Amino acid sequence: MCGIVGYTGFQDAYDIVINGLRRLEYRGYDSAGIVLEGPDNKLEVEKTKGKVDDLVNISKDLKGKFNIGMGHTRWATHGVPSDRNSHPHLSNNGKIAIVHNGIIENYDTIKTMLTEKGYTFKSETDTEVLVNLIQYFMELNPEIDFPTAVRYALNEVYGAYAITVLHEDYPGVLVVGRLGSPLAIGIGDKEYFIASDASPFVEFTKEAIYLEEGHMATISLENGVDIRTINDNSKIEPEIQQLKLSLEQIEKGGYEHFMLKEIFEQPKSIHDTMRGRLLVEEGVIKMAGIWDHVERFKNANRIIIIACGTSWHAGLIGEYLIEEYARIPVEVEYASEFRYRNPIITDKDVVIAISQSGETADTMAALKLAKEKGAFIYGICNVVDSSIARITDAGSYTHAGPEIGVASTKAFTAQLTILTLIAFKLGKHNGNLGNADFMSLIAELDAIPKRVEEVLSSTHEQIQQIAKDFVSTSNFLYLGRGYNYPAALEGALKLKEISYIHAEGYPAAEMKHGPIALIDENMPIVIIAPKKGHYDKIVSNVQEIKARKGKIIAVVNKGDRQVSEMADYVIEIPETSECFSPIVASVPLQLLAYYIAVYRGANVDQPRNLAKSVTVE
Ligand code: F6R
């Protein structure tokens, strides 16, 4: 959601900023802009509604002339996507430019105050208020410098932000700040980069500082990086990290879309998630995060899983896993609902927060609430050092590698893998999972990457054919039972978010309590029907659909007969224990959604209105 890129150094700032914005496109956006500072110190601004390509069309004359600048991709919150609302925004005196991610919640009060003092506003954004507040403080206190004025302004606002600011009278100086939205500073040789994540600068440097919450930095070639706390200006020693990210990981590597690449990466990403944790020959699961706090889990009244979207679906499967194998009661909550319904939380509760990005505002707010009430917080995040990962008491990274397609695929199966490891580990420890069963389950888990690889190669072509038949469909129903009910929800979410076809997931048995009314010869129904998992009951559900002439796309185990005979399309997956079937069954559903969307001409990697990390409530 929104992306920031900044640069100062010896290279062409225009190229660095534009290419950096392209690397951040995955975050989701609807407008883009750039500001560059010339040798005469004047600020050159170009911005537009639309994509980075549209920005390049109007700004290419700026190429090759500047060594310092910054850019932004905006995902509209305050004010529609438009040229005027795009960032950068300039202060009334035209000297200060800002780009901003996040929301200034008290912008209206500040706007009223500034309007009374004669300030005018060209946009509907909260960001333009902030840049004028900086001007206001500089005029009110002529003795203070530009970074101090930024600090004063940031102390007046509340909400969430990552900002980068330039001032004409302070040539060569970039001021950045962060609260609730990530910002990284890349340290090169006689050059500095700023970005919402490291992807825009990983090809130039492997050294980065991740700005901490409530910190700001003044960056210049002359004085390097000076980090201060926003509230009291205390100096902070920078902690330089070595980036593990590689360029290869953030490029498409020959695939048409990141989403397809990420679907095909799953055998590796699942394996990477288990690497060093699942030691089959020794018969152990090593997870320091769990082991160090195993008594907290063992003595927990219950585990509450909080998450949003796809991560919430993973949480639902986590509930099945943990209750079945560790026999600890689990509740799964949408983070946004949990936060606002005055939940009962005690210090006997363990809260597991699941988030690919580790930046989701709703999840963050929910876990802060749980923390305040004394619960123990465990994080499952993909992005290392993300905000959620930092504030949890303990946790496990999924290690799925960067996920760039907006629709989550490999992060989901990695989340399921971690939840499976947690359930087995706790179950073994508290005696609910006997040694023989444990050994056989972990051997099967170890082979799951292989099973996923089989599914990819055996279903890829077939699914392309099936997808062609559903390009013009308006509705889809996804059904599953037990572990595969959340897998059905996830299949439906994948389809709707990238193809814009209305799709609903349901527990198969619930169909007769309502959705069955929708079934006729035009309704495609994807039904997940593996052998292990209430198969006989599913057969009855399929019969009910058949009787109403619904079009059945069945995901079944190899050699299946009963469901396959009734289905219009049969997709075969290998047989596994029921608890692993959502991982294996999700893969063809991801491919189905992907190809239907591609054949409909949709922008698969950047679906309309969606953002990769949802940093606003
Ligand atoms: C769907 C999708 C979203 C995210 C949700 C939570 O494909 O990606 O539903 O799962 O926005 O995001 P994270 O996991 O980053 O907290």
UniProtKB/TrEMBL annotation:
Domain SIS intervals: 293-432, 466-607
Domain Glutamine amidotransferase type-2: 2-222
One Pfam match: SIS
EC number(s) given by UniProt: 2.6.1.16
Residue numbers annotated as active site: 2 (nucleophile), 612 (for fru-6p isomerization activity)
Catalytically driven reaction(s): D-fructose 6-phosphate + L-glutamine = D-glucosamine 6-phosphate + L-glutamate
Location in or out of the cell: Cytoplasm
Keywords: Aminotransferase, Cytoplasm, Glutamine amidotransferase, Repeat, Transferase
Matches recorded under SUPFAM superfamilies: N-terminal nucleophile aminohydrolases (Ntn hydrolases) (SSF56235), SIS domain (SSF53697)
Main location: cytoplasm
Family matches, as Gene3D superfamilies: Glucose-6-phosphate isomerase like protein, domain 1 (3.40.50.10490), Glutamine Phosphoribosylpyrophosphate, subunit 1, domain 1 (3.60.20.10)
One Gene Ontology molecular-function label: glutamine-fructose-6-phosphate transaminase (isomerizing) activity
InterPro entries named among the record's database cross-references: GATase_2_dom (IPR017932), GFAT (IPR005855), GFAT_N (IPR047084), GlmS/AgaS_SIS (IPR035466), GlmS/FrlB_SIS (IPR035490), Ntn_hydrolases_N (IPR029055), SIS_dom (IPR001347), SIS_dom_sf (IPR046348)
GO CC field: cytosol
BP terms from Gene Ontology: amino sugar biosynthetic process; carbohydrate metabolic process; fructose 6-phosphate metabolic process; protein N-linked glycosylation; UDP-N-acetylglucosamine metabolic process
Primary enzyme class: transferase
Coiled coil: none
Subunit details: Homodimer.
Functional description taken from the UniProt entry: Catalyzes the first step in hexosamine metabolism, converting fructose-6P into glucosamine-6P using glutamine as a nitrogen source.
Protein name, entry field: Glutamine--fructose-6-phosphate aminotransferase [isomerizing]
Protein's organism: Chryseobacterium phosphatilyticum
Top-level taxonomy: Bacteria, Pseudomonadati, Bacteroidota, Flavobacteriia, Flavobacteriales
Gene that this sequence comes from: glmS
